[in-house]
Fold this protein.
Amino acid sequence: MKQSLGTQLRHLLDLLDGAVARNYATMGIGYRPRYTPVLRALIAGEPCTVGEIAAAAGITQPAATQTVSLMVEDRLIEAASSSDGRQKLLGLTDHGRSLLPRLQEAWEATALAAAGLDDELPASLSGVLDAAIEALANKSFDERIREASR
């Protein structure tokens, strides 16, 4: 039986994220793969608001809020009030900053592994994903489902 697109995507993500998480654990880094887009946004220009992180990382604000909460619990980032007190500004903790060299090493290994995977495939996985995201930006999957339901 052929798996549905959603099942295939979840399985692929489990395979990829699981391997990355095991690599962090092997390196002795207490870090989750889902933290990477948030951390990269902060590296690019801290302090940031949750909204700025979501926009920079290309994730939803609820996803960014949830990930930020986990990262605060893990002492990787901390929140401070903005000068007017209306927003929380997020930045790396000393602990979070201390992990950066080892994380960079892990990210480089992950990028090389991804390039190797792309070389084995009939088409670049990252290229196909970029094309799918662009196609869905032009016409949402919601709209495609509505059209298919007619």
User: Anything to note?
Assistant: The CA atoms of residues 54 and 63 lie 8 Å apart. The chain has a mean pLDDT of 92. The longest strand covers residues 77-81.
